[in-house]
Amino acid sequence: MTAPAASRPDKRPVLSTRQFAEATQAAAILASGGIVGLPTETVYGLAADASNPQAVARIFAAKQRPTDHPLIVHLHNVNQISDWASEIPRVAWQLAEAFWPGPLTLILRRASGVLDAITGGQESIALRIPRHELALSVLQQFGRGIAAPSANRYGRISPTSAEHVREELGDAVDLVLDGGACSIGIESTIVDLCSGALRILRPGAITAEHLRAATGVAVAPAMPAGPRSPGTSNSHYAPSARVSVVSPTHVLKEVEKFHTMGWSVGVLSSIYPSDLPTSVPWLSLGFGINEQARQVYRRLREADHMGLAAIVAVLPEDIGIGHALRDRLRRAAGLGDLSTTIVGYRPSAADS
Ligand code: TXA
Ligand code: MG
Question: Which residues surround ligand 2, an ion (CB under 5 A)?
């Protein structure tokens, strides 16, 4: 097997002189125990030195996140896996080779010496190399692992722009790097490799089919999520507005329901719902499943800014990243995992 792409000598990210200087500044802040808003291809992260307990504590304080929730450690070179994990199975190297840098997080057995604050006291560790030039430059210049949960307050929508991070965390961060809008727009796929099987804990841009094609290993059914996987709890990814997910044919009926309750309501969908009253704002997701993923959190945020009490959301198609998008919208609606029934939908095989 040839050396995994990410373990060859680091490719220098292509950055302007100014961006490189910003990355240098961010690396210096991290080295002195600070916390930084960091762009990645999925969502913005809130970064700290993963080996510095005080810096990691600042992440939890800024996010107001319970301290037993584990964090993802971000790396820049696949060889760093061995610094953080032990008993690394062959499939982990295969997945790193195939998808890093990229939107895939691997859960492995932790190495000794990893802070309990990072793992939430569990025996496992979450690792990923992000695919964003600015993030990679910070990681390379910093040199070691960077802990980075999504840069939102606990239980809120993940930020997909630097402005969202400032809106969420304000002065609690020492610096926010602006790397533009996130190219994927929802969080990485999380794959648990600790049990000998390959299990998806959180769906994302890398699908079960991608994983199987890269490894030849079928994806095992997910285990019921524990309380320490906040990304898998219903209250996550939720705007302040109440979200109702429906089939395209039920949009008007659902809008009407909220109107009779006296609630302000908007519609989140890819296609403009015909006969939508002009007084009802349309939150357009755009065309194509990848564009819908890029837009979804931005639009949910806009709904909150507009002061909407409710959002009627049409579930995107279950293709590619659409599976993860449907998961996030169901959770925003408080419907939990993929097995719950949606107004106007019969549960399909793909939904179970
Ligand atoms: O795309 C992403 O993954 C973004 C960017 C910034 O990299 N990060 C992100 O981090 O979404 P966070 O902390 O918001 O979500 C990570 C999820 C959480 O649900 C956490 O519980 C889970 O990963 N997690 C972390 N370590 C874990 C572990 N050892 N075992 C199981 N789940 C873990
Ligand atoms: Mg998060």
Answer: 150
